[in-house]
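Thread: Newbie trying to understand structure tokens

Hi all, I'm a second-year student working on a class project, and my supervisor (Dr. K.) asked me to get a predicted structure for one chain before our next meeting. I've only ever worked with sequences, so writing a 3D structure as a token string is new to me. If someone could post the tokens and maybe explain what I'm looking at, I'd be very grateful. Here's the chain:
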Amino acid sequence: MKSEIVPVICPSCGTNFIGNYCFKCGEKKRDAHVLSIKHFLEESIEGFTHFDNKFFRSIKVLISKPGALTNHFEVGRRVPFMKPVQFFVICNLLFFLFSGGFNVFTVPLDNYLRYPNYTSFGTLRAYTEKFGSASNPDAVKMLFNEKVVQQSKIFIFIFIPFIALACYLLFFIKKRYFTLHLMFATHFFTFLLVFFMFFKIFFEIPNQYIYHFSPDTFEDIALLIIVPAIFLYLILAIRRYYKINWFFFVMSGIFLVYIFSQLLQFYRLGLFYKIIYSL
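---
Reply by user tm_fold:
Sure, no problem. This is what the structure looks like when written as tokens:
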């Protein structure tokens, strides 16, 4: 007499198992082995090395082949690489971990109160109206500078949809889904985080201990490095992914660099007003 086969129900979605994996949600059939210490250690090591391989493979392609990551995801070659948003979040965490203090997305309070590109938007007036008679302006400055560094990392993702919208309008003729432009913008902005992280580590920090350039000289040198590097990367990424003629991809690169610089300006201003009115 044949013994009756008892169906195994998937604990995640309630579907009957066929084989070792649920065909509906991918859940693995449970067995006693998964509760052993050995299996726990094996899965932990495998998960870490799998993440490690994906991360460094994604970094390599991101830097060496601009636009290729977006291309891989569009054609469905996704397993070897990290998902765009996951990749962005991790690079964002690394950027703020290694950059520390002020970075390209933040400036100290003194800058907001001295330079015309900020004071022309009423920053000095707003500060004076609220803290003009402050008994301890140094305490206000210290608190503001702490908050601007902390909060800059929280809202940094808002750049991505604006860059994606600019790409959508520029390359509308390509008739790609807006999601693909979002993916391209996410990969581009992830590169910016990686680039600025290396810039901080290999140029800005050594300047404090080795080069000792004056603030004005340092800013001039930084612009000579940053702007051409971003522009070159962007036009190569546009050329590889959108496959347009050289004149249009160069002009598109100039436009997108300009859009990024304007977004950066308004991002800094937004942080200023948010923090000033919350103090």
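A couple of things are worth pointing out once you decode it. The two ends are 80 Å apart (CA to CA). The chain has a mean pLDDT of 84. Feel free to ask follow-ups in this thread.
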